[in-house]
Amino acid sequence: MFKTTLMNRIQNNCHIVDAKAADHYTLCVYLLKMKEYYRWDQGLALTDKLNKEAVNHWIIERETLWESVEDQDLSDLTIENNPFDPWDVANINQALAKYNLVYSAGLGTYASPHFVLADCLECQQKSDYTLYLLGKEYARELVAPPAMSLDQSIFIRTESVRRTVWERLEEWQFHSGHPIVDSIMAGYQTVDIEQVLDDLTQQMIQIMIAHEQGEIKVGHVIGKDWQSLVFELPRSQASFMVRAIRDNWADCLSTLPYLIRQQQWQGLDLYFAYWSGMRKVLFPDLLEAYWHWQKNQDICLLEQTITKGQQHWQQVATNVLALEAETLEQKIGLIEGYVNQQILKAIDFCHQN
To answer: Contact, 156 vs 118, CB < 8 A?
Structure first.
């Protein structure tokens, strides 16, 4: 009864969030996310085929539900008769530890909240952070980011990681002959897709842990002003740029050094198979160094690029924070103009000396 009551309260908070955030997406993206959300809500396997009519009916019902809660405020959570603010993650998890449950609450893209209640597969206390591995999820919103860091805690949602890998595997079926995909799949002699999925999911979990460790390190250097800037910016090229700057910095600090140090070569392929969007646009030399390693099996250029990338993205982030403007529109223009200039510097960045 306790678990059901808590789950329902958190899920209602998720409905309130979805009611206010669902219109952030284009129609195509929205429908894809709703299909995935339906699969989770109905407890369907990743390989189960969806009934189009059932999905459409469920979407109508869910949108009607969202309309009914759109004006509600987020509710407190009650555990053993003690009320908790829904953002009081540390104390909530302390109260949930005996039940082998874990709760996460954070802000994602455009400051949209994310809530989740799940089984706790693992809780590791490290010297400078706590790592939570989440299992079966009992409450969640439309968007389910596979990894998040909050203060000194890292939350890895294994269900979401597995789904992300599965979606990419489906996509790769149509990209035979792509060198990165071929390199990843070359190590598998099996046609058992579940075994491949399990293995790649575990590798992706380690990649995401390393990235979130990098996020925490970056946060110690850049402070809270960067996150304030992220939440201040509306959807724009500038907003994608500032996220990409931090991601590239975190990966140069943590993710990529970890993969090389552990000689996780398939993991390195997997990293670059997912590396896309603005991160890729802003740092073309990283991909060039990766291709050099692929062709020559010489890791030196990639290591040099990563080391110089640490310095470069820290400086870019520092300079972006120093930009001053009278209006938000002017600030967006300044950020976009400045960061675009850094792409040219990044191209020659690793070929100096």
So the answer is: no
107-145 pLDDT per residue, tens = 877 667 899 999 999 999 888 889 999 999 999 999 889
d(CA 5, CA 345): 55
Which residues on neighbouring strands pair with residue 122, listed in sequence order?
133
- Which residues fall within 8 angstroms of residue 151, CB to CB, at 6 or more apart? 89, 90
CA–CA distance, 205 with 203 (Å, rounded to integer): 5
Give me the phi and psi of 8, to 5 degrees please. -65, -40
Provide the residue type at 33 as one letter.
K
Alpha-carbon span 95 to 115, nearest angstrom = 17
Task: Answer yes or no: are the C-beta atoms of 22 and 142 closer than 8 Å.
Answer: yes
* Of 9, 142, 116, nearest in space to 63 by CA: 142
- For the chain, the average pLDDT equals 89
Could you report the per-residue pLDDT of 180-234, keeping only the tens digit for each? 777 777 767 666 778 888 889 999 999 999 999 999 999 999 988 998 898 888 8
d(CA 178, CA 287): 15
Residue 23 pLDDT greater than 90, yes or no: no
User: How far is the C-alpha of 142 from the C-alpha of 128, rounded, in Å?
Assistant: 31
What's the CA gap between 313 and 212, in Å, rounded? Answer: 17
Cα Rg for the chain, rounded, in angstroms? 21
* DSSP H/E element including 137: strand 130-140
- 104 — phi, psi (to 5°)? -135, 140
Query: How many C-beta neighbours within 10 Å does residue 284 have?
Result: 13
Its pTM stands at: 0.88
pLDDT band at 149 (very low <50, low <70, confident <90, very high): confident
Q: Determine the Cα–Cα distance for residues 89 and 83; give it in Å rounded to an integer.
A: 12
Neighbours of 199 (CB within 10 A): 15
**In this structure, how many other beta carbons lie within 10 angstroms of the beta carbon of residue 32?**
13
How confident is the model at residue 189, as a pLDDT?
Answer: 67
